[in-house]
Amino acid sequence: MNAEPEPGDWRRLSTRMLLVHPVQELLRAWPVLVGLVVAGSAGGHGSWWSLAATAAVIIGGLLRWFTTSYRVTAEQVQVRKGLLRRQVLTVPRDRIRTVDVTAHALHRSLGLAKVEVGTGRTDRKNDGVKLDALHTAEAARLRDELLHHPAASATRPAARPRETLLARMRPEWVRYGPFTLTGFVTVGVVAGVVWRSLNEAHVDPRRIRALSALLDRFGRTSLAVDVLIVAVALLVVVAAASTLGYVLAFHGFRLTRGDAGTLHVTRGLITTRAITIEERRLRGVEFSEPLLLRAVGGARCIAITTGLRVGRGAERGGSLLLPPAPRAEALRVAGAVLRDDVPFSRTPTGHGPRATRRRFSRAVGVALLVVAVAAALWALGAVPAWTWQVALVLVPLAALVAADRARALGHTVVNGALVSRRGSLVRRRSVLSCEGIIGWNLRRSFFQRRSGLATLVATTAAGRQRVEVQDVPLPQALRIAEEALPGLLTPFLER
Amino acid sequence: MRLRPPRHLVSRKAIGYWTLRALGGWLPILAAQVIWTLGDDGHVPWHLAGLVLTGVLGAAHVIVMPQWRFRVHRWEVTPEAVYTQSGWFDQERRIAPISRIQTVDSERGPFEQLFGLANVTVTTASAAGPLKIRGLDRDAAERLVDHLTEGTSADRSDAT
Asked: How far is the C-alpha of A440 from the C-alpha of A460, rounded, in Å?
């Protein structure tokens, strides 16, 4: 590969991808290959078919290198790919919002990294440009080229811009790992795979000796003890899986700010990710505390930025600014990212007794409804009595959640930013710069109208696309809107 | 301080359209219930109770909703902003500055064509905030689209 390609030249992926592509394609195609062996073995030519298919897959993988090329011109990034269906993807450079550099284990062992160029239209699939993969140095240079010097030429000496460190992982943060609950997903997936392979292999779990001994033991103890044992075992496994997940995802986490107005996040143990967010795309920061994490004094930060959708898991979308960490550290980082910590230190204005009442009537009301339905079904003889008795437990639980949710409600407009806090299971304090607010949605349900409340939604092109100020008294909602975007509402206001 | 509703009502013809649509929702339910009642020999009181309940709820919805909706659905365009109000039981007001408008679409479903109605959708860069004006008179919708597209094409920033 040329060390210094001309700006407008078509460039190829790393030659080492000649090794990686076939392996990747084989991994992707293995169910088909296995299927061919099985299907063909009946006719006696299974191995030949399989061999031919394997060869085809490998050749296909090799061809991907020859058919894929890209170039960066002063105005746009283009990628040509495809053998039978030639495609040219073009992304105007002024639309590039993020550049994400990822390297999984195979990439890393060969010194490669995948580059993904995000344009903000992430709701449409296959819109971005993906380069899988380049030499690590080439990937880093491409990232700098695309983000730091939008208009400058590509040929630049490799002088890395200076960076200031905003946050870095500390080993003791691992203690927040068990409280992230990501392990639930992992355990669920593993359990599913084990169950399916047992089924596929026609193994009766009861015939495995260790397992049947265990089941015998269970048979002799009481149901309550069994439930307790299973619950504790599940908790331990989930906690361990969550911790492992935390280490895998966030090992070596660093958040830095570059001179040219960019934020860099690098993290990962086996698969490393380097995410770059342009500060001119940053519209705010969300400080979020899931219930469990809040209970142990932890919190995390998520960037509210155009071009990165939240929603499908912030870790995936790459907008995570700080993994679960001590609350004070999260507050400091949130303030440092926005260069203003007032929105995070100022206590938000509460929403008053009517909002509190609404939280209670909704939560407790739903719980009572569940009890009533269960009781009615019991009266009709459809369900046993314990259903409504258990449902009764929901009522105090709902009241607790309602109280916590009511306490969370709050808002303020400070230093040109809208601050909104809400939620109990995940408490979020969203700080959205007023420049990032596009318009307002003022939602009023029938019951909200009766109690003089409204939900004010600031719409934005960044992050979750909205910041909600929930159940705020109507006059206060109007004041927020007036203060955050002066003049927009004025023609429609009557005093 | 009070936020007044937008100035303009939508077309009165929308009431008919909404009534028709509500009927279209309730009739299949009622039909299914009747078929079930005829097919099932026992449980007559239960079936009758169900039919009466569906009938009452359906009639109330079909009669009340369109009138209520007509009173709520409103819109207004000023040189600076688009302002809409929609819903009936739950209501929502949306305000977006003209300068942040990205697209202006108008559309007509088959039944809306029958009533001479059209919808206008104004989108911004936020997925949370399209402003929909439903039940406009067709000519009014065309005029509105022309007016809005004239206003927005002058401004060429990407409005995020």
From this structure: 9
The Cα A204–Cα A192 span in angstroms is 16
B73-153: what CATH class? mainly beta
Can you tell me which residue has the tokens 């200031």? Answer: A164
Q: Which tens digits make up the pLDDT trace of A315-370? A: 455 788 999 999 999 999 999 999 998 999 899 999 999 999 999 999 999 999 99
Hey, which residues does A468 pair with through a beta bridge? A457
pLDDT of residue A455: 95
Residue A314 CA to residue A425 CA, distance in Å, equals 16
In tens, the pLDDT along A283-327 reads 999 999 999 999 999 999 999 988 665 544 444 557 889 999 999
Structure tokens given for A123: 């709701």
- The domain spans of chain B are 8-70, 73-153
CB A101 within 8 A of CB A143: yes
pLDDT the model gives residue A432: 95
Task: Measure B52 CA to nearest chain A CA, in Å.
Answer: 21
Q: Distance (Å, rounded) from C-alpha A458 to C-alpha A442?
A: 9
Judge whether A58 and A22 are in contact, CB under 8 Å.
Answer: yes
List of chain A residues whose C-beta atoms are within 8 Å of the C-beta of residue B158 = 95
Residue B130 burial (10 A CB sphere; 0-12, 13-18, 19+): middle
Q: Is the peptide bond before A133 cis (omega within 30 degrees of 0)?
A: yes
pTM of the model: 0.78
Comparing CB atoms, the residue among B83, B100, B127 nearest residue A492 is B83
Task: Report chain A's mean pLDDT, rounded to a whole number.
Answer: 83
Inter-residue contact A459 to A438 (CB < 8 Å): yes
**Taking residues A362-380, what's their average pLDDT?**
91
- pLDDT tens, A29-62? 777 777 777 766 666 666 677 788 888 888 888 8
pLDDT for residue B152 is more than 80: no
What is the DSSP pairing of strand A98-103 with strand A112-118?
Answer: antiparallel
Distance between CA atoms of residues B92 and B128, nearest Å:
13
Contact yes or no for A434/A488 (Cβ under 8 A): no
Q: Average pLDDT in the A457-474 region?
A: 92
**Among B2, B126, B158, whose Cβ lies nearest the Cβ of A460?**
B126
Q: Which residue of B has its CA nearest to A476?
A: B1
| Phi and psi, residue B77, nearest 5° | -125, 125
CA of B114 vs chain A CAs: smallest distance (Å): 31
* Rounded Cα distance, A110 and A107, in Å: 5
Longest dimension (CA), chain B: 70
Residues of B in Cβ contact (< 8 Å) with A439: 81, 94-97, 100, 124, 126, 129, 131
Element (H, E) at B131: strand B131-137
The ipTM of this complex is: 0.88
Contact A433, A279 (CB under 8 A): no
Above 70 in pLDDT, residue A121?
no
